[in-house]
Amino acid sequence: MRSLYWTHGEFEKTKYILEKIKPHDKIVVGGGGLFKDFFSPLWETILNYVRRDNQLFIWGVGECDVKDKHTTLSESQLVRIAETATMIYTRDQTSKQKLQGFNARVEITGCPSVTIVSQWIRKSPRYLLHVIHPELLGASLGLWRQAASRLASDLGLDVVELSHIVPKSGIRRLNYLHKTKNYYQNAGLVLSSRLHGVIFSNAMGIPVIPVSGDKKIESYWRDTLGKKLLLNISDSNFLNKKLANKALNDVSTATIVDYMEKNRQAAKNILFMMRS
Q1: Where are the beta strands (DSSP E) in the chain?
Q2: What is the reported pTM?
Q3: Any domain includes 4
Q4: Do 8 and 42 meet the contact criterion of CB atoms below 8 Å apart?
């Protein structure tokens, strides 16, 4: 078994190894944003060298479009992926419907991260955790920081901020992951413009207010989880204690428990096929 990465500094190595795929090798491709157009060269390499007898499993992928522009792979690439994949495990209803339209074998399992994050034990609700996506928030980031600070003061919480951008170096990376876990464990409320801020909160049963600047938050939050409370990037002035109370009263982990079991079953299925 070999792990490959499509990150800066790993492109050529991964491409070289994929070009050496042998008949009956099994390939698992995982990562929520892998249908983003940034990864088009990766998929071209996979599609050029992987055949059905290799068995290709795609795990945890989902909707990637930003609201004001198309950022997903081309339809022709998605069709080829659907034709080649043995099974696709997706995190949202929108992606499932799109892939089924290309005759893919697809199942919703949510995000695989829930199997880990759901085990983090909640402690004292001390923080309003503001999970930011600077690129999507753009010029409105300052307004959201001000709104988060006001709301934290009204709720008697300390406001802390995370970007979910993990440092590359070993020690800094470990420190950041420890800090991330600690913030979530002690969060009384999460305000998130990042999808994984929403996923982590929901997995842990933390009240969360999603801020949608891309379609993946809406696809996961509304279409997949059936939730309604959602703000747009221009809605920072609507953030108040009343809205926070709505989030406090809308906490349920029932769907997450179901996704945890589906991810465990997906892992078992993949391992069985890889060993056969």
Answers
A1: 27-30, 56-61, 87-90, 106-108, 127-131, 158-162, 187-192, 208-212, 231-232
A2: 0.89
A3: no
A4: no
| Structural domain count, the chain | 2
Shared domain check, 140 and 243? yes
The answer to whether residues 107 and 142 belong to one domain is no
Q: Which amino acid is at 245?
A: N
Burial track 27-44 (b if 16+ CB lie within 10 A, e otherwise): bbbebbbbbbeebeebbe
Domain presence at residue 5: no
pLDDT in the model for residue 107: 93
- Is 186 in the same domain as 208? yes
Instruction: Dump pLDDT digits (tens) for 80-132.
Output: 999 999 999 998 888 999 999 999 999 998 888 988 999 999 999 999 999 99
Task: Report pLDDT for 69.
Answer: 78
30 SS3 class: strand
245 — phi, psi (to 5°)?
Answer: -65, -35
CATH code assigned at 166: 3.40.50.2000
User: Nearest 5 degrees, angle CA 87-CA 88-CA 91?
Assistant: 150
Report yes or no on 1 lying in a domain: no
Residues 18 and 104 grouped into a single domain: yes
Whether residue 137 is contained in a domain is answered as yes
Residue-range definition of the domain harbouring residue 15: 11-113+258-275
Q: What is the mean pLDDT of residues 34-45?
A: 91
Rounded-to-integer distance, Cα 220 and Cα 52, Å: 30
Distance CA 233, CA 221 (A): 16
Q: What are the distances in angstroms from CA 123 to CA 126, 191, 206, 213, 241?
A: 9, 18, 11, 30, 22
237 SS3 class: helix
The answer to whether 85 touches 227, Cβ cutoff 8 Å, is no
